[in-house]
Amino acid sequence: MSSNFLEIKLGPFWVLAEAEGKKLVGVSFFHKKESSSVSGVNVPGVNKDEITHPSPILERLQEDLINYWRGEKIDFSDYPLRLDNCSPFAKKVWRLTRKIPYGEVRSYKWVAEKIHTKGYRAVGAALARNLFPIIIPCHRVVREDGSLGGYSPGLKIKRKLLEREGSYLF
DNA sequence: TGCGGAATTTGCG
DNA sequence: CGCAAATTCCGCA
Description:
By secondary structure, the chain is of the alpha+beta class. Helices cover 33% and strands 19% of the residues. It has six helices and seven strands; from the N terminus they run βββββαααβααβα. The structure holds a DNA duplex (13 and 13 nucleotides).
């Protein structure tokens, strides 16, 4: 099974998405100058697969990301994702996080309680392993006191995403 | 408001 | 098995 890639610039950030067949395999932010990778696969600038076998899901994603950055309330919750060897706990956290509506935020504690655990920090740890930023909107999970909390791709990005969604920030 | 410490759960080495 | 982590809560200045 060959992979297809999409590189797209959202404001100051570059986003790389990889798909295999009808499913997304990973999404990541990267610096254009550096060599990037998703799931350990080195990414070529352009490859033949991309040209001869355009991926419908990536074309749709490109469209959605562009409109998302324009400020439209895009819903990414129905994109099929490949979640092969992820822990059951992480899947629970991600499944719930996907349901947080555009423009709204929830706390790590809220997520933890919804899945009946006191492991607030474990929730953060699971979100830190999110392979699909934006698609699984982990940027909408913040601290109970309203402060930002963490974000693996970088807090500047988290702040910017929330700002574009019109969320109230501290 | 802010800092230190304890409680908690998960996953990686 | 030990430890760090995208947290939270509580006490105390």
